[in-house]
Every structure is written in C-alpha cells, then in structure tokens.
Amino acid sequence: MGYRLPISKNWLEARKQEEWTRGRTITAVKLTFRKLWRIMVCQVRVNLRDGRGEEKTSAYYTLGNPLLNFEVDFGKKQLEKKPLPVVVELGEAEELLRSRGEGGGKILEAGRKFLKLDSFDFAKHALVVGQTGVGKSKLLEILVGRLRRDYRDEYGVVVIDPHAAMKFPETDGAVLDFVRGGCELFGSRMDPHMTTEMTTLVFKAMLGSQYGAKLERVLKFAVFTLLTAGKMSVAGLRKFLGEIEFRNEV
Q: Coiled coil where (predicted)?
C-alpha cells in the first residue's frame, strides 16, 4: 500500500488522523526486529481497514525504533476534529440534495451528510463543488432564499448566473442582460470636452508605448465630433475611423 507510520506523531495520533482524513482504521501494528550484520533493522507491518470493511496491509523496513512513537505525552494537546468546513462537496446525482423542514430550520441532506442552515455562517465565503447535475444550483437557490427571507436586514444578495438557470421568486432588483443589452458609456448629458479627454486617456492607458501624438489628435477629433453630433459609441468610433461615408455624414 505504501503507508508508513509518521515519525512526528505517536501511534494514537496517527490512528486518529488516518480515520479522519482517509476513513481508514489502523487495526494492528506488528514489529519484527532483525539484526543484519551489526545493524538492527525493524520490519513494520500495519493492518488497515477501510470504510467498506476491506483489510489491507502495508509493510516496510526502518532503521529507527518505532516503539519510541508509542509514548504518549499527556500534557500535549491532542488532535481535535475540525468542524464542517465551508467547502461543501456534493455527492453523486442519485443523492441529489433535498430540503425539508426540521428543528425550526431547513436541512440540506445528501446521503448521510447534513448541513444545517441555521449554523451556516453567511458572512464567510463558501465554495460549492460537484459534477453536473448533482444539485449545486438548487443548493444556492435554497441559501439565497433563506437569506432573503430571514436575513434581509443584515445581508444583500447579488447573484451572477452566466447560464441563466437559477430561479428566484419575487426577486426585487435589476436584471442585467449582457447579451441583448449594452452599457451606455456616453450619455447625452456629458460634457463633450471632458468626455473627450477621459476617453483618450483610456486609450492611452490601454495602448501604452503604441500611443503617440498623431493617434491622440485623431482620437480627440473623432471622439469630440461624434459627441457633439450625438452619435458617440464604441461601434460609432470604429465606423467613423474606418468609413469615409460615415465621416462625411457626421
């Protein structure tokens, strides 16, 4: 198997760590000391049992004395199992999360793992990972719905859904459609002179060393002309610089 008892922990700590991190239990450790010429060599055989009850053995040799790691320091702080992290890994598709009312708060259930929403700290970041179809969007819908219902005065919710697959009833707020709509950068009430200067500064920052005095004069003329004509836009600027018919029309 390749498992070796850690030399920095006693066996009891190693046994706990293996159970918590990998779900395996160390059932037995067998030590066999042999003298090879003038060197004492120890063969270590570790028996492990996984969650399905399967037994496996890992064997290796060491020049050290593993018995030293059987000493227990009662003054040392022992390992403590960490609480449920904010990274929640969802199960397989057949274990799709479902919500139910219980104990005054909804509980998300996947197999035998539970996440009680009342104890979830919404002030922290959370990452939900899982394969397609396991219920990540459903989990987020439940969390957002709980926030809006019980914590409306404490938290604000911003949902960015590129796939437009999530549904929230009674949603109050703005819906931004980045595909069909656009962002109006140059409003009709803007000052033409100030807007021209700001726009050319943006191009200067983007182009860097490729930005020169000649390009600055061309941009200022084009932007100012389009602003005063009420036709300034990114698409209009491109058309103004590339099509002589459009320039003559403006």
A: none
Task: Please name which of 123, 99, 119 lies closest in space to residue 109, comparing C-alpha atoms.
Answer: 99
Parallel, antiparallel, or unpaired: how do β-strands 105-110 and 113-116 relate?
antiparallel
218-234 residue pLDDT tens: 999 999 999 888 888 88
Cα separations in angstroms, 89 against 84, 96, 97, 115, 122 = 11, 12, 11, 11, 17
105: which strand partners?
Answer: 102
The stretches of 169-233 forming alpha helices (DSSP H) are: 192-207, 213-229
Place of tokens 């270590």: 44
Provide the token pair at 43: 């063969």
Residue 158: which pLDDT band, with cuts at 50, 70 and 90?
confident
Give the C-alpha separation, 228 to 61, whole Å.
85
Q: How far apart are the C-alpha atoms of 217 and 156, rounded to whole Å?
A: 46
Radius of gyration of the chain (CA): 33
Do the Cβ atoms of 26 and 46 come closer than 8 Å? Answer: yes
Who contacts 138 (Cβ-Cβ below 8 Å, separation ≥6)? Answer: 96, 97
Per-residue model confidence as pLDDT tens digits over 169-207: 665 566 666 555 555 666 666 788 888 888 888 888 888
Helix (H, G, I), strand (E, B) or coil at 62: strand
Q: Of 101, 99, 168, give the one whose Cα is nearest residue 139.
A: 99
H or E stretch covering 150? helix 136-150
For residues 80 and 157, give the distance between their C-alpha atoms in angstroms, rounded to a whole number: 35
